[in-house]
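Appendix C reproduces, verbatim, an entry submitted by the partner laboratory led by Prof. M.T., so that reviewers can inspect both the input and the predicted structure.
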Amino acid sequence: MISLHDSTLTSAGGPPVSQPSALTGTASDAALWHWIGTNHYFNSKLWAEEDLARRTTVGDSEIALNKRAIDKYNQARNDATERVDEILLTELGLVDATSAQTDAPVSKVPANARLNSETAGSIIDRMSIMALKVHAMRVQTQRADVDDTHRNSSQVKLEKLLQQRADLGACLDALISDTQAGRAYFKVYRQFKMYNDPRFNPALVAERAKSGA
């Protein structure tokens, strides 16, 4: 996981990373890694777009385009996270396979297992974001146009980020181990991001009503 996140950033020279190849097979392992890579791709697109959205010397129309792209990439990132959870839970036997991709996935709950509020997919998503932070902070430690104070401060932050990412990885390993042993389970959680859906966003509903569409 960490190797995938880091290697794609290194290959690309920073965010955004290359988009994974189109999924052609149906093997669960291939599908899982495809969606992990897709999640990382859209997180990296978000990262780059967030930087652009904070520019102060361009017109408002350019910033508006950045903001719309951020909404699109954030939706795609969340969709990929849900695909990761669907695959993992299906393989673990913790969700009814026929309902896994619906709006109402049916969980199969082991007796006496605890519910983990954070899903494996959401931990993987956080690890992707941590990889982006690690990469960006490492760049700061190597800058030649700043003083030693900046580089040393960045090194301290980098070491803390690396520890935080290692902690997340350990939590993911523990969650998967506990689910395999029947001690824990998690669910497919739908984000239902209403602001991206013209049927639910009240501002977009009002616009459509005003235009008579």
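The chain has one domain: 2-198. Additional entries are available on request from the coordinating office.
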